[in-house]
User: Fold this.
Amino acid sequence: MKLSTPRVLPLENSEWNESQKELMERSSAGREPTNIFKTLVRHEKLLKRWLTFASYILGKSTLPGREREIVILRIGWLCQAEYEWAQHVVIGKRVGLTDEEIERITQGPDAAGWSAIDKALLLATDELHDEAFITDNTWAALKAGFSEEQMLDLVFTIGNYNLVSMALNTLGVQLDPGLKGFAPQD
Assistant:
């Protein structure tokens, strides 16, 4: 973790006002809210509006789940956003990523074993992170496997999780119980 303590403390359930409680109940789908939501609920208007976009990216985008999680994990790794990484290792495994693939994401697009389309996803993530631009060669490689809508969703997915990584790192959002960050996952 970049910070060992939060700069913005999570707001605990007992501290929520009525509108915060309603927002947190809607956003957590019956589960205990995670630290990112407990932190962002301190700014209800921001959380409410960001959730609309983030919910689309995570659950309604045209990108298949496995491919979405490859780019989310890669941008989390590039940003050294340990909270993001930990949360999405769990989600990545749920959508079919193997432990080997998750480890290989840390090595990037040049690691042995990637399919051409997986390599293009990783290249796109690296290029957007480094230059805020996907090169023509990478764009062409992506077009071989994705529709125009999926390509748009890809750019916005990487952008959203770059933003989230910056916020998590800067705010000092700490790992939720049971998550291991950059440590190997069981």
